[in-house]
Every structure is written in C-alpha cells, then in structure tokens.
C-alpha cells in the first residue's frame, strides 16, 4: 500500500491489520498423522476426510486396509494443516468424536512438530552393534525419540564408546546384572516407568509375563534370525550348520512366548559356501541393525497396528 | 586358398579339405568339476592340462574352505574336439584325478554328451510340473524326460496329459496308500535315469528307496527351510504373520525336508496378502527355485559340502 502522504493513525492501523493477515497466510502448515482402527462400516473414509478438509487440512497420503475375512477397518492418513486454523486440542476432540461415532478400537493422532517425542528406554546385553547403531542414528537426528536411559545386564567401562556417548548426551546407563534367579525386573520397571515403549537391542534376557503385564506398553525386540526359523540361541550358528542360502533378521513385539510375538519387519541376505560362521554373524549383525531401526521408525510414524491375534498391519 | 590351375592333385584336395575342416571347426564348451584334498599346485596342473590341449579357459571358480583342507573347482573352457577328443579328455582328467586322489572329477561336454535323463514325480499340484515341462519344451531345460510318475490321476484331456502324449513321454499313475508307497515299481521305472525331480511330490521316499536308487533326488519345498517343515507351510507362514515367504530346493535324504539345500528364494508379504496370495506367491517361488536348482545341477555347479550343505558355483 503506497501512501503519497504522511500516514495517519487510521492508516497505520490498516497497515498493521494487513501485515498480520499477511503473516498468518504465510503461516507454515505442519504435518499430522491419524491412525484409525474400528469395525468396518460404509462411510468411514468419507467422514474422516471430511473432518480433515473442513478444517482446511490437506490430505497427502491415505492407506486404507479392510481384510478379506474380517469386518475391520484400518486407516492411516497423513495431512498438512495450519495449526492456527486447527488447534491441537480441537483436532484431538474432533477425532475423538469420530472415534466414538465408529466405536473405534484405536484412534491415534500425532503432530510431530508439536507433540513430545516418544520416550524410550533401550535394553542391551553384551552385543554392542544394535545399541551403537541406534545411538548413532539418534545422534544424527534420524531416530526421533527421547532416550530416557540405557539398561544393560553387561557392564561397560567409562572409557568405552557407548559410555562416553551416553555421558556426552546426559543419558544414564544402568548396569543391572542378572542371574538365573533374579532378572531385576522390579528395578527395570522402576526405571522405565516414564517411557512410551521399550527397545530390546539384543537384550538376551526373557521378559516374564508379569513384567509385560506390569509395563503394559509395547516392547520391540530384534531377533537375529528369520523367525520362525532358529528360535532361541545362536541362530547364526544354527543357520550356518543348516547350510541355508539365505539368512535374516526379524523385529517383533515381545509377548510371553519366546520369539513369538507379532512380526513387524523381516530382512534377508544371501549366503553361500563362501561364507564362514564369522561372515554369517557379520551379515546377520548388519541385518539386525537395519531391521530394528526400520521397525522403530515405522512404529514412531504410527505405521504399525495389531492385526488379528499374532500379526501386524504395517502401512 | 585359390587355385589358378585347372587340375587339382589328390594331395592338394586333401590339403583343402584339411584346411576347410580346421578353419570351420567350431570350438565347443567343456565343464570340469574337481574335488580333492587341498595341496599346492592343483589349479596349475588343471590349467596346464587344459591349455596343453589347446583349450581356452573362460571361467574358473575355486573354493577352499577356511577350516578344511578340501579343494573345489569348476572350470569352463572351449576347445577343438578334433584336437582334444572326448575319450582322451576323459583320460587326461582321470590321470589328474588319480594324481590328486580326487573325491570327484567330472567332465561334461554338453554338445557331445547325452543329456541328463530324468524322471519327474508329482502329486496333485500342477504348477511345478507344468513349469518344468514348458521350460523343457522351450529348450531351457536341457534334459531328457524319461517319464512322469504321479500318485494322482490326470485325465486324458488335461493339459499335462495332452502335453506328455504329444511329446511321447509316458505318464504313470501310481496311487499310494499309507501302507503302500509303490516304491518298488517306481524304482523300476526310474532305473535308467541320472537323477530324479520331485515337483511337489507329496510322498516321503524311504531310506531304502534312496539307497537302492543311489542317485541324486532334487525336491522343492514350499517354504523357507528350516521354517515350516512338513505340511501346508503357506498356511503356517500366513498364521505366523511373517513378512517374507520363501521356497527351498534341496537334495532328498531320509529325514523329511532335511537334505542339503541347493537354492532358496524369498518374496515379501504383508497384511494385504491373503492365504490365497501367499499360496500364489509361494507357487511362483517354487517354480523358479526348482528350475534354478535343476539348471545349476545340470551345469555341474552343485557339489556336496560337509555333511549337510552344498557348494553352488
């Protein structure tokens, strides 16, 4: 607005209003994720998308899945919106209404830019590779979580890479040695109380059913084998002895059965006669790192949903 | 060679013939596979043997495991069969075999040697059998199919029955019961084969059968061994919520689904897959995996390794 004369108070007021209008139209739109799981009915997608659109949200991505044999509905929507037009608490309330309307099993909303990061604890034993890989990814900003602490039944000296990294970032390391009689579960529960989920990064102790029930939240484990092959100990050696041509890793939710919970992700690599036990192990470690990281990433992005009794939907 | 004069002597004719023969003689392929206790100098001697006869080595795979003094090699070479006759070749390699006290020394000249004779056993499931027959028809499976044996009947107007009739390949229907696996009859029918292919043959071959037959039997298992041994692995996999399914081709031993693995293949599955699509993906994998195993086997790429494994060059 060009003025040929000296601006009056009214002019100034008009400028201020227009500037404010300009700045709110230049308001950044931010990213939202909504995940929905309910009994199937006609009209769910219509209502969900109408809800988003009515608030000026722009849907970028939708995954909908209704299994053949089951009247269940799963969806995951990604959308951008203006948090000024659609405040977080209003968004929460509207999706809750839809959740009640459709009698949803799950209705989860996440706005990464506004919501607190997932808080996790990482449990590990002697094997370093998965723990180190997770910490590096986290350090690089590729793993968008808050690491409350690391718990291990194996001691690590103050001059080890991990201890120095954790110290540098102010993440406590709790050494809780286990025995066959004492798995330290009470203490672990005390330490992980304030977490959203747990990551077992080659933690070699079995969590009891009681622990799982008390903790109540999800636990993601990496198994160094292609489940259900080679459950239990030393799957690389089992695989090597079996003369397989493919080895793999499996990330899954922990349940009371050993290496039996719903599978989230699996990866393989070829092996041949040219591999020895050492290269089997190295290839396996490489797969474990990737497979666990992928599972955690999918989980944090709300891509993983329980499906039937023992499976997952992974959008 | 142009001759300017009118008459040709016998000698010059003979010379022309000889030159024509040499200049147009095609080089053909030879494959040699060797397994012996490891020592210094094996590759040198093998290579010298081939080159001394004018053979040109195109490919060599050598493998000596870390912890064992065993030597494996597979060489591909081209040679002039006029210069290095087949029986002489056999003899030269036999000498080397004795020199190195070889466990195995096999030479194969695909253009000259007879094709492998096989029998294919199948049950009700068609897909692997049909795939093998089509590949064979297209010339992609260089074997001779002696016969097809099945414990499942196929009517004369079925695709498989018509196909086999068209090519003069007998189909033997040998229904099995829990008490009678028809092994004696099968043994007789397959006596003149080099190896057997179980293309989703759902009967377990007894130790006695395997011993009597004495030659290799290749099976396709519709799962990623050692996962899901036994029946209906697709359903087992589907119920287990795995994200990868696979197929395994292996040599048959007395234990069910336990013999040395030759090849494995996988494909991704997700929540979007139904039991039906699990099965379809699995069938696709089985066809490919079995065909690949047979191909490798015929090309002399598969060697026994330790007690339960294979070297696959």
Structural class of chain A: alpha/beta
Dominant shape of chain A: globular
Strand content of chain A: 25-35%
The counted number of beta strands of chain A is 13
Percentage of helical residues of chain B? 25-40%
Average pLDDT of chain B:
92
Helix and strand composition category of chain B: alpha/beta
Distance between the termini of chain B: 45 Å
**Would you identify the regions of chain A where 5 or more consecutive residues have pLDDT less than 50?**
none
User: Could you give the order of strands across the largest sheet of chain A?
Assistant: 7-6-5-8-9-10-11
The tally of beta strands of chain B, per DSSP, is: 13
Biggest sheet strand line-up of chain B:
7-6-5-8-9-10-11
Give the C-alpha Rg of chain A.
25 Å
Termini gap of chain A: 50 Å
Major beta-sheet overview of chain B: 7 strands, mixed
Total DSSP helices of chain B: 9
Quick tags:
heterodimer; A: 315 residues; alpha/beta; 7-stranded mixed β-sheet; 4-stranded antiparallel β-sheet; 9 helices; 27% strand; globular; B: 313 residues; 13 strands
Plain-language structure description:
- The complex is a heterodimer of chains A (315) and B (313).
- Chain A is α/β, with parallel strands linked by helices.
- Helix content of chain A is 34%, strand content 27%.
- Chain A contains nine helices and 13 strands.
- Chain A has helices at 9-25, 44-54, 88-101, 129-139, 161-168, 185-191, 209-215, 235-242, 277-300, and strands spanning 30-39, 58-65, 72-81, 106-110, 118-124, 145-152, 173-175, 197-200, 219-223, 246-253, 263-270, 304-307, 311-314.
- Chain A has a seven-stranded mixed β-sheet. In chain A, strands 2-3-1-4 form a four-stranded antiparallel β-sheet, covered by helices on one side.
- In chain A, helix 4 (129-139) packs across helix 9 (277-300).
- The N and C termini of chain A lie far apart (50 Å).
- In chain A, 33% of the residues are buried.
- The mean pLDDT of chain A is 92.
- Chain B has 313 residues and is α/β, with parallel strands linked by helices.
- In chain B, the strands form three sheets. Chain B has a seven-stranded mixed β-sheet with strand order 7-6-5-8-9-10-11. Chain B has a four-stranded antiparallel β-sheet with strand order 2-3-1-4, with helices on one face. In chain B, strands 12-13 form a two-stranded antiparallel sheet.
- The longest helix of chain B has 24 residues, at 275-298.
- The radius of gyration of chain B is 24 Å and the shape is globular.
- The two termini of chain B are 45 Å apart.
- The model of chain B has no long low-confidence stretch (mean pLDDT 92).
- The chains are: A alpha/beta (315), B alpha/beta (313).
- Chain A binds chain B through residues 65, 67-69, 74, 226-230, 241-246, 248, 262-266, 268, 272-274, 276, 307-308, 310-314, and chain B through 63, 65-67, 72, 224-228, 239-244, 246, 260-264, 266, 270-272, 274, 305-306, 308-312.
């Amino acid at each position: 607005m060009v003025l040929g004369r000296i601006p009056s108070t009214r002019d100034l007021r008009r400028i201020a209003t227009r500037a404010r209008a300009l700045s709110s139209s230049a308001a950044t739109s931010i990213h939202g994720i909504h995940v929905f799981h309910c009994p199937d009915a006609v009209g769910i997608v219509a209502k969900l998308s109408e809800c988003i659109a009515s608030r000026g949200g722009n849907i970028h991505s939708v995954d909908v899945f209704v299994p053949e044999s089951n009247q269940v509905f799963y969806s995951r929507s990604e959308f951008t919106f203006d948090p000024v037009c659609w405040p977080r608490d209003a968004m929460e309330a509207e999706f809750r209404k839809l959740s009640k309307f459709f009698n949803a099993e799950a209705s989860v909303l996440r706005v990464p830019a506004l919501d607190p990061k997932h808080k996790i604890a990482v449990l590990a034993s002697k094997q370093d590779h998965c723990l180190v890989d997770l910490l590096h990814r986290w350090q690089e900003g590729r793993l968008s979580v808050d690491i409350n602490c690391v718990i291990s039944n194996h001691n690590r000296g103050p001059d080890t890479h991990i201890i120095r990294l954790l110290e540098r970032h102010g993440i406590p390391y709790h050494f809780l040695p286990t025995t066959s009689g004492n798995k330290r579960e009470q203490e672990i529960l005390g330490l992980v109380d304030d977490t959203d989920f747990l990551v077992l990064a080659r933690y070699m102790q079995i969590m009891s059913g009681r622990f799982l029930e008390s903790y109540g939240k999800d636990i993601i484990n990496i198994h160094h084998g292609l489940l259900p092959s080679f459950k239990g100990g030393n799957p690389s050696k089992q695989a090597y002895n079996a003369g397989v041509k493919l080895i793999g890793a499996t990330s899954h939710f922990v349940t009371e059965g050993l290496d039996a919970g719903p599978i989230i992700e699996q990866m393989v690599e070829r092996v041949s006669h040219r591999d020895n036990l050492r290269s089997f192990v190295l290839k396996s470690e490489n797969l474990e790192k990737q497979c666990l990281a992928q599972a955690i990433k999918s989980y944090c992005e709300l891509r993983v949903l329980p499906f039937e009794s023992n499976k997952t939907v992974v959008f | 060679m142009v001759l300017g004069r009118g008459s040709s002597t016998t000698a010059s004719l003979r010379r022309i013939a000889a030159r024509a023969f040499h200049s147009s003689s095609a080089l053909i392929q030879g494959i040699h596979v060797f397994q012996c206790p490891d020592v210094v100098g094996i590759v040198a001697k093998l290579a010298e043997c081939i080159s001394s006869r004018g053979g040109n080595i195109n490919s060599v795979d050598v493998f000596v495991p870390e912890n064992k003094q065993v030597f494996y090699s597979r060489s591909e070479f081209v040679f002039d069969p006029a210069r290095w006759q087949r029986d002489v070749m056999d003899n030269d390699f036999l000498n080397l075999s004795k020199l190195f006290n070889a466990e195995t020394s096999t030479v194969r000249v695909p253009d000259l040697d007879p094709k492998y004779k096989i029998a294919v056993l199948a049950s009700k499931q068609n897909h692997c059998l049909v795939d093998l027959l089509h590949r064979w028809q297209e010339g992609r499976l260089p074997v001779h199919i002696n016969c097809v044996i099945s414990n499942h009947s196929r009517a004369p107007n079925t695709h498989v029955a018509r196909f086999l009739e068209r090519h003069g390949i007998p189909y033997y229907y040998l229904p099995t019961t829990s008490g009678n696996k028809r092994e004696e009859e099968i043994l007789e029918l397959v006596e003149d084969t080099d190896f057997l292919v179980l293309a989703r043959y759902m009967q377990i071959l007894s130790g006695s059968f395997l011993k009597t037959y004495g030659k290799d039997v290749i099976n396709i298992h519709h799962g990623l061994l050692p996962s899901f041994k036994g029946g209906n692995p697709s359903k087992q996999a589907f119920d287990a919520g795995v994200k990868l399914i696979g197929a395994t081709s292996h040599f048959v031993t007395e234990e069910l689904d336990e013999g040395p693995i030759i090849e494995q293949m996988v494909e991704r599955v997700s929540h979007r897959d139904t039991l039906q699509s699990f099965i379809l993906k699995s069938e696709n994998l089985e066809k490919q995996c079995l065909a690949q195993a047979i191909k490798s086997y015929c090309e002399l790429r598969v060697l026994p390794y330790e007690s339960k494994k294979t070297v696959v060059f």
